[in-house]
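ok, trying the design again with the full structure, not the truncated one.
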């Protein structure tokens, strides 16, 4: 009996994804556990394993297809000797139509899949995902390009060589938008109309950028932010860091200011346990461990890998783990358990020379700490003398549903205590 393979939900927030690459072809025999595809989510590119065994009867979604809804059919598996008729394909899809509350939408999805199958059967252009992306960026029609890859597949070099021989095609990438007649389909088209007489390049949103835009918009609209600001003196922190790095010189490891900030926040959450909480809709969840998320900038967006049990780890261990997670984030190799969860976030733009800023809370976290650059500033001592010290700006963005003002102030006081007297972190 034939079985539909559905687009998997590879993370709790995933609603759609890109089928980056098939690792099987029609007619292949697969077993449970075999890798059959690479799926690009809003966070990473992950390999997808087969659950059923049989013969790949039909690949319903072509490589590089974007916006494939979770639980929509992407392939059909057949038993030995079973044949798949074209008329049966639609029936199979209807039996396992995508989960939706809108019946009309489900019918439209099934009809679109059936149409795509018919088009694929009549003519299919084989190209690598990279080649498709390059062709789209350069405004090239894949039907006019001959592929030099296996079985005539269009590869990267085919796009590049075609672009060189047809330079006018490249220019279309920047000017075609101006030449198109503008049709008003809503606010987005209205915005394009404003720039119809200007040269611009249209950049499609990838999965990560869509998710970032959606989550941050939701956070600013639905989370009642308030902000606590504090300038702290980090002279002692810089001295301690320098001494510790001297001792670590032979270990090829080096502590950063950020490592101390992570540790300080983790210990502060232990000192103020009521602030170590997340918003869960109809309740508040107060966590026992300090799981700290750190914003890492990557191409086209950002990740927030989570260091779990940060309060129990040494500074050198925190530093090593943070470097590993940051590298995996930049190469989009993070596993879901490495970026999900946490109760508190840190966003540090000090290394970019930013004095101070307000960060947007990462739901369901209760707070996020924005860290600015360390700057030399004049300060007034207790004896009214003036001295120059290294001062760093902190801004704590707090979800008022989870943490009240006094509780947030107590948390900020404890973060300050550990950063201004870092020896307390070693106790």
């Amino acid at each position: 009996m034939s079985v539909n393979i559905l687009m998997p939900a590879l993370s709790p927030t995933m609603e759609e994804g890109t089928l980056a690459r098939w690792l099987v072809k029609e007619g292949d025999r697969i077993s449970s556990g075999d890798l059959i595809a690479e799926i690009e989510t809003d966070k990473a590119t992950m390999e997808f394993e087969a659950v059923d065994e049989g013969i790949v009867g039909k690949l319903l979604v072509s490589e590089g297809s974007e916006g494939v809804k979770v639980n929509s059919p992407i392939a059909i598996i057949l038993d030995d000797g079973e044949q798949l008729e074209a008329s049966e394909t639609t029936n199979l899809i209807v039996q396992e139509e995508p989960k939706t509350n809108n019946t009309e939408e489900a019918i439209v999805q099934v009809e679109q899949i059936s149409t795509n199958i018919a088009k694929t059967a009549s003519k299919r252009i084989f190209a690598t995902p990279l080649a498709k992306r390059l062709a789209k960026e350069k405004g090239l029609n894949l039907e006019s390009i001959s592929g030099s890859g296996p079985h005539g597949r269009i590869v990267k070099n085919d796009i590049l060589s075609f672009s060189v021989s047809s330079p006018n095609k490249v220019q279309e990438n920047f000017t075609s938008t101006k030449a198109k007649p503008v049709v008003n389909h809503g606010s987005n088209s209205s915005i394009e109309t404003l720039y119809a007489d200007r040269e611009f390049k249209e950049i499609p949103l990838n999965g990560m950028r869509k998710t970032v835009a959606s989550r941050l918009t939701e956070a600013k609209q639905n989370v009642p932010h308030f902000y606590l600001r504090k300038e702290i003196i980090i002279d002692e922190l810089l001295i301690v860091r320098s001494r510790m790095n001297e001792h670590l010189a032979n270990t090829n490891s080096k502590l950063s200011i950020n490592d101390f900030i992570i540790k300080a926040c983790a210990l502060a959450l232990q000192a103020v346990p009521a602030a170590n909480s997340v918003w869960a809709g109809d309740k508040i969840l107060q966590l026992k461990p300090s799981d700290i998320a750190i914003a890492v900038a990557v191409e086209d967006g950002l990740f927030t890998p989570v260091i779990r049990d940060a309060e129990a780890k040494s500074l050198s261990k925190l530093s090593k783990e943070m470097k590993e997670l940051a590298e995996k984030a930049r190469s989009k190799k993070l596993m879901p358990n490495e970026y999900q969860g946490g109760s508190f976030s840190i966003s540090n733009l000090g290394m970019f020379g930013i004095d101070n800023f307000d960060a947007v809370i990462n739901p369901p976290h209760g707070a996020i700490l924005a860290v600015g650059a360390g700057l030399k500033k004049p300060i007034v001592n207790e004896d009214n003398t003036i001295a120059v010290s290294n001062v760093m700006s902190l801004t704590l963005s707090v979800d008022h549903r989870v943490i009240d003002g006094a509780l947030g102030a107590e948390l900020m006081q404890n973060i300050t205590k550990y950063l201004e007297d870092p020896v307390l972190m070693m106790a």
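Keeping the full-length input from now on. The chain has three domains: 3-122, 129-204, 209-426.
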